[in-house]
Amino acid sequence: MKVAIQGIAGSYHHQAATALFEEATMVECDTFEQLAQSVDRGESQAGVMAIGNSIAGSILPNYGLLQQYQLVITAEYFLPINHCLMAIAGQTLKDIEEVQSHPMALLQCKPFLNDLENTKLVETDDTAAAVMRIKRNHLKGVAAIASSIAASLYDLEIIAQDIQEEKLNATRFVVVEKASQPETENSNKATLNFTTTHEAGSLSRILSLFARKGLNLSKIQSIPIPEQPFLFSFVVDVEFVELQMFKDAVREVKSLTKEFNIMGIYKAATL
Ligand SMILES: O=C(O)C(=O)C[C@]1(C(=O)O)C=C[C@@H](O)C=C1
User: What residue ranges line ligand 1, CB within 6 angstroms?
Assistant: First the structure.
């Protein structure tokens, strides 16, 4: 089975996809858009895509990609993220003039990076790509932020550990596919996307309905509607005990929304 990820071996996407799919051939993509396209075109049967982080928040453009390519969420996974600063052997913190990493990783390490004076920050396609390039080109004065797995894979030396802003740091990944999978008795979570009418109380009526139907809202995110400046749709994650509860709520909520789309029904994961 081919699984599209953003990044190369040693990236956090690679770790999440390896945990989710025992036997998969990873299709390594430079960007999230390429990942979405790979699944859309059927070049990969599934994709594993980061959608949010406990420190840095939602990766908003990825919500847009799920919509644009009409991908379906079929599973989720929470990966604990412990960032390290690494460089070629012999380099110390004093030698480092440039730090390279994925923008989300840089965001998660802001206080640590703020303390490094006169250090240039460079965004890379993924954490592991930065590590590989530093090793391959034997770059002195340049460090990468990545996992300890990437450090040992590409043989860089760890200079500092656990440099993320908060010790407990995790990224939520979703598995995306072109077509939805039939729901099972294990399905207890769904991601919905809807627009509301522009009236006082329209969102609160929808949220009240979810509450009355026993659905537990675990996330709400507003996302821009393409080509409608400053108009937003809502993406909500709801959890339920029985699928029937969810189906009942969906039947009723449709009359309260303008547009309504189920982005996926799947089994909730835990951290
Ligand atoms: O660059 C990587 O290693 C990734 O897998 C990307 C990514 C992200 O997109 O958020 C994944 C997990 C971490 O939050 C940092 C970076």
Answer: 6-7, 11-13, 50, 53, 81, 102, 104-105, 126-128, 171
Range of the domain at 40: 2-81+169-177
pTM score, two decimals? 0.96
Q: 205-224 in b/e burial notation, b at 16+ Cβ within 10 A? A: ebbeebeebebeeeeebebe
Respond yes or no on whether ipTM tops 0.95. Answer: yes
Residue 103 lies in a domain: yes
Number of domains in the chain: 3
Q: Are residues 71 and 173 in the same domain?
A: yes
The verdict on 35 and 64 lying in the same domain is yes
Buried b (16+ CB within 10 A) or exposed e, 45-62: bbbbbbbbbbbbebbeeb
User: What pLDDT was estimated at residue 220?
Assistant: 97
